[in-house]
Fold these 2 entries.
Entry 1:
Amino acid sequence: DVKVTQSSRYLVKRTGEKVFLECVQDMDHENMFWYRQDPGLGLRLIYFSYDVKMKEKGDIPEGYSVSREKKERFSLILESASTNQTSMYLCASRGFGPWSGELFFGEGSRLTVL
Amino acid sequence: QQQVKQSPQSLIVQKGGISIINCAYENTAFDYFPWYQQFPGKGPALLIAIRPDVSEKKEGRFTISFNKSAKQFSLHIMDSQPGDSATYFCAATPGAGANNLFFGTGTRLTVIP
């Protein structure tokens, strides 16, 4: 069964702290994504990666960075957390090819910044 | 701006009824339209998807209707069940392999017994 695992389901951090959100997929997928989910706004793409060490900005990259050192792992980094980054963060992966449209999501990491 | 507009924001349907969620888009380059279903505490999962060369796609009780000229598509859930209670997201992308998948804002469906 395909699996995308987000290591932290719930985190509480203080303003200014550095936050790491980790995501691992076991499907040997080339593409990995970080989305942010907020009520009334749907899912918004923060960053995606189409290969190891490659990354592209999504719609809302400000305040975030990412790291992909291994194919199976994609990390989201908040260098200095702010209260407006309180949200649900979803990692997803997708294979390569013209009909590989299905995104496989993790269960999410709910971050609260105080 | 929102590339895909979704309505309603929430929907309450009686068991056995039909649930209808609507989405609209402007970008004529979009050619792949998936729907994702998300249960509380879980990530979204692909439910059903359509390309604009067909006007309808049915999988069990779930049907996507697609109107290319109006740039609208909708999800119909027939014989809605309490187990269908979830948040539904429509999405659109210029190609199934494209990276920029644009999501609607979501519809929270509650099916009451």
Note: The first strand of chain A starts at residue 4 and ends at 6.
Entry 2:
Amino acid sequence: QVQLVESGGGVVQPGGSLRLSCAASGFKFKNYGIHWVRQAPGKGLEWVAAVTHDAKNQYYAGFEKGRFTISKDNSRNMVFLQMNALTIGDTATYYCAKWTWDAMDVWGRGTTVTVSS
Amino acid sequence: QSALTQPPSVSGSPGQSVTISCTGTGSDIGTYDRVSWYQQSPGTAPKLIISEVYNRPSGVPDRFSGSKSGSTASLTISGLQAEDEADYYCCSYTTSTTWVFGGGTKVTVL
């Protein structure tokens, strides 16, 4: 079945870095883009970034101010989110989601990032 | 890009209909028919229930319907059921080649 599995979350100090991974299966990965969406504890959903099916174009929300980089490896069915200079405000559950037209039709279960000293 | 505006909460009795509004601007909902809606139950990932304003993915009950007028989109749940109690989020594509979510609406079944 179509599945996305996030990993790489954890506890990191302010100013630190993390690399999140999203492993895809069950569909033609090279034909679809992927989004990252985050949700701070007790808060709503916030779109973070997206990468096109061919990995050639990346889009960002703007709040990350160049700190985040999304990438896609079609040979490994993986998407990554490199996050640098993390702040307490980046504490959230991070979800990857399959991009179908302009909706996100399949979501992973998420990986939790906690930024704390 | 500011978040789309949703009411924090709506409620209804079983069998009733409830409507959730999602107000954007001419830079998002007002320009594109690229509005989607997501249902999220506590402790779970969001689930797509409406795409492109009014399209229901396979498996989504037809009591969920979407519409749009100007810069405001709406989700209507007809024949409210206990299992519909959840948080609901709208989302739109924008002219900045980004996506923006609403703040979320908690639906309570009385």
Note: Chain B has a mean pLDDT of 96.
